[in-house]
Amino acid sequence: MMGAKMSQSILPLADGDPGSEGTAGPPSAGARSDLTPSTAHQIRRVPDRIEPVVRPWAGLGSIGSMKAWMVLLPVDAVALAAPALWVPAHFKGLLAWAALSLVLLFMGGCYRPRLHVSVLDELPALLGRVLTAAAVIATIFALWHDQDEVMVFLGTGIVGIGLLVVGRMITSSVILTARRRRIVCHRTVVVGGGVEAAELMLLLDRYPQYGLFPVGYVGPTAGPAAVAASRLGGLDDLDRVVRSTSSDVILVADGEHPESALLDALRSPALAHCDLMQVPRMHQFCRQSGADDHIGSIPIVRIHRPRLRGPARVVKRGADILVSGVVLLVLAPLLTLCAIAVRLEGGPGVLFRQERVGRDGKLFTCLKFRSMRPATAEESATNWSIAADSRVGRVGKVLRRTGLDELPQLWNILVGDMTLIGPRPERPHFVMKFSEEFPTYRHRHRVRAGLTGLAQVSGLRGDTPIADRARFDNYYIENWSLWLDFKILLRTFSEVFLARGR
């Protein structure tokens, strides 16, 4: 009897969830359950469930391989463009408004997948961006039309906004229905064994409209989560659990694991395809950001995962080939002059070849203009280069200070050993040494080594701390985008022109 009462107090039925339009739903964001560590042992275990059938359309409107924008964008486009067919006189203006609206909606995150689906929650963002687009187009429209025609344009736009809202209501209803019937369902592994993990698994099991199916948790053998659901292993077993359960979502519930161990586990290549979500710390307080999602009363933050493979990487590789090929041709005279200067100062052997560690720990031969007197192979591989090295000649100092000694690496980029922007490659001896001293150093090798990188344009070169370089390199990888590459490239030009090198 006590267990039944606890179950009711933990998961009360609300009058209606904003996303379920009048049907019984989970607790609202303002209604916090009374689950506490002292009472967690009384939770009834999640009953045996029928595993959802995996269907080819299992990403519909949620967070799988088929993204939310694939469902919402076509409907929004039809709704916004439809008025242009009814008023042919203003066809171009209305079509321009529809196109600008879709761009602003996409840039504003209105097509990001959400666990809690609610038209009312999305309405302020939708109206704000669509009205902004209307104001821009109406201003331009007024330059060539009189006031009456402008009013007709705006009135027709209001019809389009109404159709947009109706379309969103329809798509939201379709998504929620598909989730409740388990047509849309993503197997989810919960990380953590505490109170939050237990409550999340109970909520997800009872309310399928969130689109997540908890297969179990990884964490301690004893605790609230062990009472609520099946333990699948420890944190070290996370990649194995994800593969064996065919899961594509990881939900980090409790902060009981050390952050370094959690980061190591989540950075595993086996988890690269998974969407990552987290219960934020101090989530009981109201947050200023309106981008958070929630499951019942528990806020959920979606963590950005670096897309180390995929279309954007193909674009990056294409840019590497194009830029390195063109620059090699354009700078051929400069490269020739550098080679002649090195030859005159140091004799034969213009290019310096050295083994470096690249992506996934693979070795490649890195090319540079020789900037100091030759050393033995062992000395070259194990001695740390410093700015005041007595072996560096006058030409070498100029080449190093301007970064011109690195230009032969454009060939490494062209053949695919390196990329324009990425962590600088290091010698195997120092990679092993630094990886032992700084556990996060090895994470730099998830991507190709770069000609220049965030650490270098931030002043971290020469004798600067290795730990700082590793932090900057990993920050670059975790936050990678084509725009970030472009910013680093611009900053690299200023570094070269102002001769801020070593």
From TrEMBL:
Electron transport found in the keyword field: no
Sequence intervals crossing the membrane: 68-88, 94-111, 123-144, 150-171, 321-342
Region annotation Disordered: where it falls in the sequence: 1-41
Amino acid composition bias (Polar residues), ranges on this chain: 1-10
Record carries keyword Transferase: yes
Chief place of localization: membrane
Record's bilayer topology term: Multi-pass membrane protein
Keywords, sorted A to Z: Membrane, Transferase, Transmembrane, Transmembrane helix
Location(s) in or outside the cell: Membrane
Bacterial sugar transferase domain span: 316-497
Superkingdom of this protein's organism: Bacteria
InterPro entries in alphabetical order: Bact_transf (IPR003362), EPS_sugar_tfrase (IPR017475)
Sequence similarity: Belongs to the bacterial sugar transferase family.
Protein name, entry field: Exopolysaccharide biosynthesis polyprenyl glycosylphosphotransferase
Lineage: Bacteria, Bacillati, Actinomycetota, Actinomycetes, Pseudonocardiales
